[in-house]
């Protein structure tokens, strides 16, 4: 099964999350950038507020789809030790420096004049467009926990069974309707998987 685009993936995901609709304590967060269009559809259908959570995947330079970890705000750094051990330490350090700068840039841009996230006591649905290694989502879970979320659901239209199993160790629930055993890359499961721009993210957040 593949999805026409991220909005179509979000529509299927919203059906799987229907039991959370119209909860007064619900917040839907899209992982920047690819998760935001999916999360926007989920938030509209669940009648929940939408926001963005900036997490930076730490990609292996010679194979960018593969993450050896992820960075998040609140000082969160999650490493996949099995993959990180195969990357030279100086390469790891360089990727960390570059991605930390980009994390700060995006947080400043996307938050704009809006206050920082307040999640204390909230039920949070953390949305991405797909789960490959799960590193970005793991970092996202850690950030939402530090911000006081009471219950954290990781949600994506498609993901690898490995990533789902890993995320079940840190999230309260993982909702992933399509878990192909032959999962390769997230992009393989979308007909339209164009990169999401900063402008698109900002536009989707304007209706919050």
Automatic annotation (TrEMBL):
<keyword id="KW-0808">Transferase</keyword>
<dbReference type="InterPro" id="IPR029057">
    <property type="entry name" value="PRTase-like"/>
</dbReference>
<keyword id="KW-0328">Glycosyltransferase</keyword>
<dbReference type="GO" id="GO:0016757">
    <property type="term" value="F:glycosyltransferase activity"/>
</dbReference>
<dbReference type="InterPro" id="IPR000836">
    <property type="entry name" value="PRTase_dom"/>
</dbReference>
<dbReference type="Pfam" id="PF00156">
    <property type="entry name" value="Pribosyltran"/>
</dbReference>
<protein>
    <submittedName>
        <fullName>Phosphoribosyltransferase</fullName>
    </submittedName>
</protein>
<feature type="domain" description="Phosphoribosyltransferase">
    <location>
        <begin position="13"/>
        <end position="155"/>
    </location>
</feature>
């Amino acid at each position: 099964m593949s999805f026409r685009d991220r909005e179509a993936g979000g529509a299927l995901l919203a059906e799987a999350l229907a039991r959370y609709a119209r909860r007064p304590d619900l917040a839907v967060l899209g992982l920047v950038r690819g998760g935001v269009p999916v999360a926007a559809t989920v938030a509209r259908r669940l009648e929940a507020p939408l926001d963005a959570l900036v997490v930076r995947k730490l990609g292996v330079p010679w194979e960018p789809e593969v993450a050896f970890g992820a960075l998040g705000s609140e000082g969160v750094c999650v490493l996949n030790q099995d993959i990180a051990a195969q990357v030279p330490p100086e390469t790891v350090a360089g990727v960390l420096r570059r991605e930390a700068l980009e994390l700060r840039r995006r947080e400043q841009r996307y938050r704009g004049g809006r206050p920082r996230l307040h999640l204390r006591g909230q039920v949070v649905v953390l949305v991405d467009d797909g789960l490959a290694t799960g590193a970005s989502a793991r970092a996202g879970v850690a950030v939402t926990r530090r911000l006081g979320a009471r219950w954290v659901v990781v949600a994506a239209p498609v993901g690898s069974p490995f990533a789902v199993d890993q995320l079940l160790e840190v999230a309260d629930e993982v909702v992933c309707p399509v878990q192909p055993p032959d999962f390769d890359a997230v992009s393989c499961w979308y007909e339209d998987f164009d990169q999401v721009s900063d402008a698109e993210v900002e536009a989707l957040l304007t209706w919050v």
